[in-house]
Write a structure and sequence with these properties.
It is a single chain. By secondary structure, the protein is of the alpha+beta class. It folds into 2 domains: 1-38; 48-211, Rieske [2Fe-2S] iron-sulphur domain (Rieske Iron-sulfur Protein, 3-layer Sandwich). It contains 1 helix and 12 strands, in the order αββββββββββββ. The structure holds FE2/S2 (inorganic) cluster (FES). FE2/S2 (inorganic) cluster binds next to loops.
């Protein structure tokens, strides 16, 4: 009788160990699965409403013309800052910026830049991370037509009547009127271009995707950050530091 009880206890103990082992294995599998399925980045560019810092939809008049420190918004992930510029020509004012072909000096390849949108076709957006070594606003910012550009006295309003984007870290200059192409190095890449969509009925803006070089410091535009929590609108940029 005692041997039978002993045998039963040994059997039950063995079952207990197996059950505990299975439970642990289940937990471990769950953890591994969780780690593997955690979202990191995106599989495609999202379409997001561009909003003001109070969360309301951005309208054209929320964007000052030729603003030295332009409106910033994050896209496609919540740590990727972009400029939104409403440009005015030095003499002609708010006129349409047509699509253009923009060269990437580093490779000799071209990409199609979208041109401007908005009621006058002069609102454009670009990555606000310098393509040379990653400096961010306010070190890289917009200079109105005819402003003195440090170290570049030859950049004049007559040559660049829409103004320029210039990075004070090491002197790279980009033309925001045509694909943010490179005016002066050391960068050998234009700023990545942001594709915008304008709704003329509501006077609001959506951001749809990006073209051109990959955002500086990232393996792809869609990796290396967190998607927006709402999945429907951008988030305002509050503070930046160079990377
Ligand atoms: S990081 Fe902008 S010029 Fe070097």
């Amino acid at each position: 009788m005692e041997d039978v009880d002993k045998g039963k206890r040994t059997f039950l103990k063995a079952m207990g160990v197996l059950a505990a082992g299975a439970a642990v294995a289940g937990v471990v599998t769950g953890v591994v699965k969780n780690v593997i399925t955690q979202p990191s980045g995106l599989s495609a560019f999202p379409t997001l409403q561009i909003v003001n810092s109070d969360g309301s939809p951005l309208h054209t008049n929320d964007v000052p013309i030729n603003e030295e420190h332009p409106f910033l918004f994050y896209y496609p992930l919540d740590n990727d800052p972009n400029f939104l510029l409403r440009l005015s020509h030095n003499t002609s004012g708010e006129i349409t910026l047509p699509p253009s072909r923009t060269v990437i000096p580093a490779t000799g390849q071209y990409f199609n830049s979208p041109g401007g949108v908005g009621p006058h076709g002069n609102v454009v957006a670009y990555s606000a991370i310098c393509q040379h070594l990653g400096c961010v606003p306010p070190i890289i910012h917009y200079y109105t037509p005819g402003s003195a550009i440090p170290g570049h006295p030859s950049i004049k309003a007559s040559n660049y009547p829409w103004g320029v984007v210039h990075c004070n870290c090491h002197g790279s200059t980009y033309d925001p009127s045509s694909g943010a192409h490179v005016i002066t190095g050391p960068t050998s890449h234009p700023l990545p271009n942001v594709i915008l969509e304008y709704d003329s009925i509501t006077d609001t803006y959506k951001v749809k995707s990006m073209v051109g070089p990959v955002i500086y410091g990232k393996p792809t535009d869609l990796e290396g950050g967190t998607p927006f929590p709402s999945g429907t609108k951008t988030t305002p940029v509050t503070e930046l530091s160079s990377i």
